[in-house]
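Troubleshooting: if your tokenizer reports a length mismatch, compare against these two reference records.
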Amino acid sequence: MSDVEAVGGSQGITFQEKLGSGAVQTTTIAKDGSSVHSRHTLIGGKVTPSQYYGSCPYEHRSRDVENSVVAAIPVAIVGGVASHLEAFKEQDRVIKSWTEDTRIWKGLRCGSQFLGKDMTAYTNEFGLIDIGRAGCSDGKFLTRVDEIRDAMNQPAPALSENSYWAIYFPTMGIWLVFALIAFGVVNLLGLWFLAVRSATRWIKAEFQ
């Protein structure tokens, strides 16, 4: 069973752990956040330096958090750009679809002037009327009488009210999840590294 003693000073705080093997393990954390991890031999009640490990796990843990942030930031930036492009593309698609629907609706409404008139000259063998050739469109526009009547009873196509942000935020939310995953993965790798290093040091200390 080991005893741990904390000693405070003007430069920071030191944790001294007396090990059963007659050694003292020291961890010093300075006020600026830096830390040192070392191992000493206890001879005649005096501490004699025997092994220096360098920075302790607290400092490496801080670096792991910094690395996690560095990994998450590029993902968030890429997500912001990708979300903007996706929102812009979706808006463009909606406008093009609305433009085409409006063109068809106007053409059919124009064809209503021919209802009840002889359209044999503009009707093909399948019974479809080419109202485009009759002057209701720049090109061929095949339709049926019932479609023309339906258009007369329908209002003009409405443009979707989906705003840029309504598309941007859901897409960006997905990328933020990816950023959090990157943050977590780097942290887990850091913890795994610290666990392996601590186990290695413990094994070395036991066999010294």
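Reference record two:
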Amino acid sequence: MKKILLYSIPLIALVLLGCIDESIANCGNTLDYSERIKCVSNVAVSLNDSTQCNYLEEGKSDCLANYQVQTEQFDCTSISDPYGRDYCLSKKSIAQESMDDCNQVIDEVYKEYCLNALSEPTEVEKEAH
């Protein structure tokens, strides 16, 4: 219960002051770390405003990575956290079918995911066989 209050009281005050959107305050009611990040990044996408991620005390980079991927802006260089950057780069690489971006991925799991996705035949190639 204390955690809910720690997250929601400051957010509610910011809503009342008009500093943030009410949707962000609702994300403070989510205790699970990943759900809170997902909630805030979804609000950021709906408002088309990546600065909404700045209201997270933890997980700003994850939120920004989600925002970049969901909006397909893929400005991965703006993400300071290497893990979030690699997530963004791997998604960008797959979306744009770019091996160059995949080769920039450092994290082994994301790199393998990226390389495997790019090596799979596309639907058009499957139909041709």
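Descriptive notes for reference record two:
- The longest helix spans residues 2-16.
- The two ends are 58 Å apart (CA to CA).
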